[in-house]
């Protein structure tokens, strides 16, 4: 029974990491560039609309569920270290929690909050928007790589089992 639960969590995490890696990849490769091209007020308004909408979508349960399951798999790997795939399971869980969740909470969310508090048409918003495009995207690259690598590690753990 426990083996089936672990395998189910591995599949859930692999799929969740893959979905989020794809979302982050889209933002890193073309969404943020497009928002930067449409002008300050429009770009800020669009990003604020995205940020308000995303927290009311299926993103949040997948974001939080994958984070919780990844943390649980990391702990499980430590407790069952001698089992096949434990190292990949631990690495995937730690990488995802730190590289995706912690980065999001420490860097991306505060940047989103600062952007939401700004008047999109103000002079102050111009420098904020320029920094936001650079800084938010840089940290999003980290989330993209962490989510992709964690997905691969969870798949490796499944294959090892």
TrEMBL record:
Keywords: Membrane, Transmembrane, Transmembrane helix. It holds the Pfam family Anthrone_oxy. The chain crosses the membrane at residues 57-79, 86-107, 141-160. It comes from the Bacteria. This is DUF1772 domain-containing protein. The lineage of its organism: Bacteria, Pseudomonadati, Pseudomonadota, Alphaproteobacteria, Hyphomicrobiales.
């Amino acid at each position: 029974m426990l083996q089936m639960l672990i395998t189910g969590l591995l599949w859930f995490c692999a799929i969740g990491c893959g979905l989020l890696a794809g979302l982050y990849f889209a933002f890193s490769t073309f969404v943020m560039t497009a928002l930067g091209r449409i002008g300050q007020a429009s770009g800020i308004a669009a990003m604020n609309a995205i940020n308000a909408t995303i927290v009311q979508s299926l993103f949040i349960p997948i974001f939080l569920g994958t984070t919780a399951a990844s943390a649980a798999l990391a702990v499980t790997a430590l407790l069952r270290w001698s089992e096949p795939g434990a190292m990949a399971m631990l690495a995937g869980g730690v990488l995802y929690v730190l590289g995706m969740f912690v980065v999001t909470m420490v860097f991306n969310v505060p940047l989103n909050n600062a952007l939401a508090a700004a008047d999109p048409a103000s002079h102050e918003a111009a420098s904020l928007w320029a920094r936001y495009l650079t800084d938010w995207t840089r940290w999003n690259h980290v989330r993209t790589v962490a989510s992709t690598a964690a997905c691969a590690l969870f798949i490796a753990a499944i294959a090892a089992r």
